[in-house]
Amino acid sequence: MVSESLRPGAMVNEVAERYGLKPNHLSTWRTMARQGKLILPAPEDPLEFAAALIADLKRSTKLFMDETRAPVLDPGSRKTKTGYFWALARDDRPWGGGAPPGVAFTYAPGRGGQHAERILQGFKGVLQVDGYAGYNRLIAPDRAGPDIRLAYCWAHTRRKLVEITRNGSAPIAEEGVSRIGELYRIEAELRGLDADDRLAGRQGRSAPLTADMRTWLTHHRARVACKSPLGEALAYIAKYWDGLCIFLTDGRIEIDNNTVERTISRKNALFAGHDAGAENWATIASLIETCKVNGVDPFAYLTATLTSIVYGHKQSRVNELMPWNFARRTSD
């Protein structure tokens, strides 16, 4: 007989109260972050969900990654320390890929590239990132492990030029923004096509524009002061140019890293009471965000999943409890 405290309904209500989950309202992230640990009945470990989700994502050959600060209380000091939530995401829907979308958060005590390397251990393929230098560790010549290619983000490139235009007349920066805008207009027209058609469209339309922009970039870099804001922005573009152009070689790759940035944009003001709380927040956030991108009601998912656990779902079959499998079961 299942004790009252372990009944699925009671547990889901507890989770709902702790993490701000309600059937019709799932956005109270501050409430989620202030709490400690998501308690599931033994022997199931909530971290098993995160591990299974990350393992599934890493079987893909194209992922997104980003990180955001996570203030955490430092026990005994009454002060906060800065940890980081690292988000790993898959979304093949823009080109009709068959793998379900998913998002996995991992808490780490720092922002060093070694944390990204640890999370990505075993992954081989294209990783879409911003220009943060910590990711360079993943492509170091002496790095052991499967090959990773970094595809950089045109949205970050555009932002650097936009910032310059906000400080007065900046015709060169404005022209750069316009050129990048043309690339985005083409991407909007190609969205929803399969990978081969997207690649053909990019090769025929975007590749000539980027070749012309490379000439434009070289021309202005030779004439703009290196230490000026515009000079630094142009140097940034030149530094990451090869990675910015990878999307021209593969129709599965996106033009930017906005997929994962949207996922973490609401998480940069979170606060955790301790490291264990941050780790468990990462787990519950992973499940909720993965529910959302799969069109699954997180409240219904948690109810069904906790019910399965209480009534003996084997830990070795945790993959069956992933949100996308719940979506398939409920649609049958």
From TrEMBL:
Biological process terms in GO annotation: DNA transposition
A Pfam family annotated for this UniProt entry: DDE_Tnp_IS66
Domain of life according to the entry: Bacteria
Domain Transposase IS66 C-terminal: 286-324
Residue span, Transposase IS66 central domain: 49-279
One of the record's GO molecular function terms: DNA binding
Cited InterPro entries: IS66_C, Transposase-related, Transposase_IS66_central
Protein name stated in the entry: IS66 family transposase
Taxonomic classification: Bacteria, Pseudomonadati, Pseudomonadota, Alphaproteobacteria, Hyphomicrobiales
